[in-house]
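Hey L., structure's done. Input below.
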Amino acid sequence: MTERDRGTWNQQHTSWLNRACRSASVALALLASTSFSTVALGALVCALPISAAFAQISVNAADVSALAGTTASVPISIALPAGTPCANLAFTLTVVANGGAPAVSSNATFASLVGSPSANLNYGPATVLVGWFSNFSPVLTGTAQVGTLSVPIPAGAVDGQTYTVQVINPFATSDGSTDLGNIDSGNGSITVGTPTTPGVPSATTTTPPARPTPTTGGGGAVCGNGITESGEDCDDGGTCVGGGNAGTPCIAESDCQGNGVCIGGTMASTACAAASDCPGGTCQDCVPQGGHGCAANCTTETQVVMNLQPGKVVNGTLAPGTSGSIVWTDTALGALVLPFQTGTTQTLAVGKARNGLIPLVVLAASVSFPKIDVSGLACACVRGVDDMTCGGYLTEATGDCSVTITQACSQNTDCPSGETCVHTLATDCTAGYNPGTCSGTSPQSCSADTECPTVTLPDQSTVQNCEGGVGVGVCANCRVDSDCSGLGGGTCVMHACDGRNPCTSVNGTGNSGSGFIDCAAGLEGVNLLFTEKSGGSSEPDICNPALGGPDYVPPSPAYPLCGAPPVITLYGTGPAGSAVVLDTTAIGQAVGPCTAQGTTFCTNADTYSARGAPETLPSVTGIAEGIIYNDDQTDGENICNCPTGLTGCDISECIVDAAHPNGGISMLGTVLPSGSTVCSQVPAPSITGLGIAGAFTSLSNNTTDDEVVTNLLLSE
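Output:
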């Protein structure tokens, strides 16, 4: 293919903070199906079912101002078209600090004006979940203020700094059971300064302050300039990311060409041209990256071995305090519990705390997972991958509107009302996992895979790919250099980035993951919600495993034939010891139990074609939830926290409680215990007790059909 489609990320819902660290995605891609293809992320758009019977509705936060050290009062309203009533309502409110503004550290609170909510819960100081699950009396109509969010502004905030009040995943019914469809989220803003009277709520977002020069440490030291200054242990310079000379060393922003990459905030790891492209974060071209002794904040790294607590199964589920993965299905199989074995380990390169944050990376070569037996149906092998893309970022600066997919956009306001801007994932160029052409042969031009011959490689795998960047591609005939020995010699040259930015590591050379642990309260995005809408009864036969027989192979990716793409939402702030992580793994698989596999399976002898595709997914120390709507070709049936267990239920029946704040299937992570030496590094850094939770969904899988997968990696 001329352009590998790696899916898209949703601008409104994706909140990947500070390029997040070590991963539970080791298991996130595991069991994407019992036919054992890894999960493929598609366009991330609104997950709630859309009803054409209703005009557009919105839940809005107002724009206000407040002095530092005081409390900002933010009106929250719902806007309903004429003749449309609202009987139930739920949403999450999160306050995000923009630019250099200090994070909210005292609890924000919500006061209702329309009756006592069934749920009014804090998840960290800056996030509140609110829900009225008993019918309003009378029902809401027109434009109505439902309450006020009170936000304590840190005393250290400076006039002109801003905070975004995000309205996340609003949901409403007209009569207690009829879904009002896709609801717009109208984010508000808080500007530090002279208080103002709130105006009419509007669906606008705050423009962050101008793009700053990244600084860390005291005395004005600039991390990444190649000079070890006051407050720094080291400074190896940085790497250009996002532009025309991505991958080259740098010591200043001016050394890099073109775009940069968002560091932190709601668009982290997305290509950017200015700070306004990175709400809650910064746009940076010259990016310090750890893994070679000097951390991303210019402190000395220490290598820490992360051994996982072995998994145990007790009473049919994963025992508390152990590591493993659970596949939740709405079939006779029920829940498949996959405990991780003794000897599961990886090595982290951990920096020191600066401004309360500790950067760390996962060394790709250190990721070691014993073979995982999937209930005797298959054997899986997990590898850490130094993921590379054209430009070194995860998502492009532009994409398409979620419904009007032919309309280009760079932000939600570029799209028609009710639509979001879906940013395209960057083109993957990871060596070995992508085919190329031997330099000793004459390339055959092509514009589609079907124009290329099928080539059998020395390892007996085949390629039939039209590889190339912008414009006409060339037919592939190799994956690694040794494939070229019988084809005129030379090296295997990839063409994925032809006409694009250079192929560059996402997490830094040799790293499969990157991220931060917070030694103080306030880390954002510590809870994960992963939702996906199946096509229900409207799905074609190819999406129904029951019609495909034992050899059924699902479409890959399932979207758009078998439903909508997934939505990833990271939200909430956490206590000291929290972490938000991002990691890349590849999951290889073989049919049958692990005892039936040869001695070379899950070794370096495996061909790249048998290792699976690199997948990058987030995980958290808070709550990870997954929900599938209209599962197993059944309208109105959902896999969530149903009162009857693993049988589908109506969305209104999904039980919301402290462990399931969105009513999904959940897994709880754990923060580092108080006094952990990873922050003091006395006598040595330790991550004992850190638990990273993940969740994801997968549609139309052999045997299990639609499924939600949760997992936990708990460090000994």
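Residues 437-495 form one domain. The first helix runs from residue 25 to 28.

-- N.
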